[in-house]
Please model this.
Amino acid sequence: MIKKTIIWTIGIVILLMITVWGIYSFRQQESYKLLVHKESKALLTVSLDDILLNQFFNTWQLSPKERLHLGKRLSKLQDNGIDIKANVFLFALEEHSKNFYAFFQLRDKQQFLYFLKDVIHVDSIEKGVESGMAYAYDETNKIAFVCRGNDLLVGVGFDLDKKKEEMLQLIQSKGDMVTIKQFIDDPSTLTGQSVRYSDLSTNNYVELTLKGDHVDVYGEFTSRNWNFPKAFLVRELASKQYIAKSWVNISTNQLKNKIKLAFEEFPMMTDSLFTHLNGNYIDIEILKNKVIQTDTIINYAVDENFETVEEKTLYNTRVPEVRITMRGDSNLNKFLPNKLFYQWFKKQDKGFSMLSTSQDVYRLNVSYKNTDELSHVAIHLADWPNEVKVPPILALKTIASDIILSLRVVNRDRIVLEGTLKDYSH
Model:
């Protein structure tokens, strides 16, 4: 009796697995009928079924509170009146575009309009814009919708307020559309991860995979214009008690020029600085502890003889301990600032020039190592101070507690991006 029960149980489990796999495969094939523009420059693939499966198998890693929040978010998104397939393929029409579009079919138009108003909270919907179309744009979520009958075009991006006419034309240009199966020989190469960005002209891509309480990041980039060395000499940064740390080896003039443009916003002799910054290396680390800096306030008063006298007042300020290192020649220190937001103290060591907010920097024992990492970034977002208003970091802080990313050189013309966004659901 027990043996029969075990056999039946195993049989039912196998049948369920086959059924689930069949449904999964069918939904995958159905999604390959979705439309994209035949002149698309890039694709953004969102593998919804894979996201749900990953979350289902990783819910044991989440706290009950986090599972509750995830369930609420999914329940709000599922009743939207849109026929959503296993995968969503968003296309971009420009090189390095900030906007992506995707076509859908509506199952229930009234339910979709309710979703816009009560879930996404779109303030106004323009009806009868042209040929019976409806248009809506939500500035907060950077998303726009164009509806024509049961056809729905969704746009996401940062310049959508200027793309209304383009979206109206796209939904009327079915002749310029092809299925993703017609556009890509094997669409399954775009799916399987949670989110994938694919540059169609270079075959470079970045993938994000949701796994319980974190997101894995992976990407590959190749260019004939690159000629990276096999190893880089970098300063060993703090392994603990830091808020953020990063280094970058500026191996291309394009990257060097971008950093130079950023430096030009500060009161420094930028041209002279970059003339002596010939080592193509910069790092920064922000430590958790703070140091005391002493500054002087000078006031002028009138004495009993009606003469102006100078009065000096010393005051102490606690500031973050920050270290910035650049590789350059022996004259580089002359062009580094003594004061910029904070007081900066200097140290020169083995072709590296260091700035620090701590006056004890000269006592610091500096060590170096060889690495194949072109660049490395690690930030404890949960510890990032709100008063330091760096918009991209503050935006990430709302969805993650830690970020670790590295660009590793595989060949002279190929690099790999690897990293993790931790605790994205907090």
The radius of gyration is 28 Å. The longest strand covers residues 281-302. The chain has nine helices and 25 strands.
